[in-house]
C-alpha cells in the first residue's frame, strides 16, 4: 500500500539549481548564434553505463513541459524536473584539451563514476 510519505514529487522540493562556468555559457551562446531558432541546450539524464546514469545534451528550439530554465550570461540551459534529484547543484563546464572540446559536469550528487567517465552513480 502506498502512503503519501512514499511518494516523491520533484516539484515539491526547493532546488539549488545548475550553474555554468563562463566557458560553458560562452559556448552555448556560440551554438545558439550559429543556428537560427535554437534557444539553448537541454541537459537530460538517462540510465546508462556501468555506474548507472549518463548525461545527454540536446539542442532546444522549444522548451518541453516540466523543463526548468537556468540562465547565465545569456546562455540558456533547460533541465527536465525529473532529472533534478540526480543533478541538482551541478556545475556545467566546457573545456578544451588539445584538439578535444567537451562539456564537463561537476555533480555534487555523484557518489561514483565509471572509469571512462561516461556515467555516474548517486
From TrEMBL:
**Any GO molecular function:** 2 iron, 2 sulfur cluster binding
* Any GO BP: iron-sulfur cluster assembly
- Keyword field contains Iron: yes
Tell whether Amino-acid biosynthesis is among the UniProt keywords. Answer: no
Which InterPro entries would you find in this protein's record? ATAP, ATAP_core_dom, Fe-S_cluster_asmbl/transfer, FeS_cluster_insertion_CS, HesB-like_dom_sf, SufA_proteobacteria
Q: Which of UniProt's keywords are assigned here?
A: Iron
**Mind telling me which GO cellular component terms the entry cites?**
cytosol
Locate the Core domain: which residues?
18-118
Regarding protein family, the annotation reads: Belongs to the HesB/IscA family.
What is the name listed in the Swiss-Prot or TrEMBL entry for this protein?
Answer: SufA scaffold protein for iron-sulfur cluster assembly
**Species assigned in the record:** Shimwellia blattae (strain ATCC 29907 / DSM 4481 / JCM 1650 / NBRC 105725 / CDC 9005-74)
Q: Name the lineage.
A: Bacteria, Pseudomonadati, Pseudomonadota, Gammaproteobacteria, Enterobacterales
Amino acid at each position: 500500500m502506498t502512503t503519501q510519505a512514499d511518494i516523491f514529487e520533484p516539484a515539491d522540493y526547493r532546488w539549488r539549481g545548475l550553474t555554468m562556468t563562463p566557458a560553458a555559457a560562452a559556448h552555448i551562446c556560440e551554438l545558439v548564434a550559429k543556428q537560427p531558432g535554437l534557444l539553448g541546450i537541454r541537459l537530460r539524464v538517462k540510465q546508462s553505463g556501468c555506474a548507472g546514469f549518463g548525461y545527454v545534451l540536446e539542442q532546444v528550439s522549444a522548451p518541453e513541459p516540466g523543463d526548468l530554465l537556468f540562465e547565465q550570461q545569456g546562455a540558456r540551459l533547460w533541465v527536465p524536473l525529473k532529472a533534478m534529484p540526480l543533478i541538482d547543484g551541478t556545475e556545467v563546464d566546457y573545456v578544451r584539451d588539445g584538439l578535444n572540446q567537451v562539456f564537463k559536469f561537476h555533480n555534487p550528487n555523484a557518489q561514483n563514476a565509471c572509469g571512462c567517465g561516461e556515467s555516474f552513480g548517486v
